[in-house]
Amino acid sequence: MRAFLGTYFARAMCRLAPHPIGRLPKSTKERVLHLSFDDGPTDDGTPLLLEVLARHDVPATFFLIGNNASTHPRRVREILQAGHALGNHSWSHVDAWSTPLRQTIREFSRCQQTLEELSSNPVRWVRPPYGHITRPVVRWCKRHQRQMVLWDTMPPDFADGMTPTDIVRSFRRRMRTRSIVCLHDNPRSKSVTPAALSQLIPQLIDEGWTFADLSAVGS
Questions:
Q1: 3-state DSSP call for residue 167?
Q2: pLDDT of 110-140, one tens digit each?
Q3: Which pTM does this prediction carry?
Q4: CB atoms closer than 10 angstroms to residue 180
Q5: Rounded Cα distance, 170 and 2, in Å
Q6: What whole-number distance in Å separates Cα of residue 3 and Cα of residue 54?
Q7: Does residue 34 sit within a domain?
C-alpha cells in the first residue's frame, strides 16, 4: 500500500500542478530511468550507494537535507566527486503542508545556500519532502530558477520490515520508461536499498535499460 500511495500520489501531483516533473522528457530514448535518493547524506548509507552506482557507472541525484549535509560535508564531496547531482530537500525535512510559510521558505533557502557553498555550484533541483507542494514553494523555485522534481516510482525502502527482494519487486512492478525513481539514504533504507540495487541494476542493464541524469530537464 505504501508503494502504491507513494507512487500514484506523486504521479497525480505532477499532472495537477504546473511546475514539478516526475519523468524524464519524451525526447530522451526509451527504456531509460533516473535514480534519485532522498534524506542523505549519511555516514553509513551514502558510501554503499556510491559504491553500487560506481560499479555500474549509473548517474543519480541525491536530494540532501541541509542539516545532514552540514554535518557530513565529506559525504557531499564524495557524491560530487563521483559525478552525481545534488538536490535541495529542505534543511530539516520540513512538511510544507503543516509548517508556517516563512519557516518553510527559510528551510529551502538555508538548504540551498548550504549545498551551493559546499559544492561551489548552483543546485538546480528541489524536492519538497513527502512531495508536499505548495504555491509559495513553487513560486520560490521559479523566482530562483530552480526545477521542482518529484518522482514517478517510489519503492517503499523507507518502511519497516522491507527486504531487498521486496524493493526489487516493488521497483519492477511500478517502473516505466522515463521514470524518475525515488529511493532513500537514511537509517531505515541503508540495509535494503544498496543490496536491492546490487541485484536490480545489472538485471535492468542486461534487459536493455539505461540510466540517465537530469541534464535533459530544464531548470
A1: helix
A2: 999 999 999 999 999 999 999 999 999 999 9
A3: 0.94
A4: 25
A5: 10
A6: 27
A7: yes
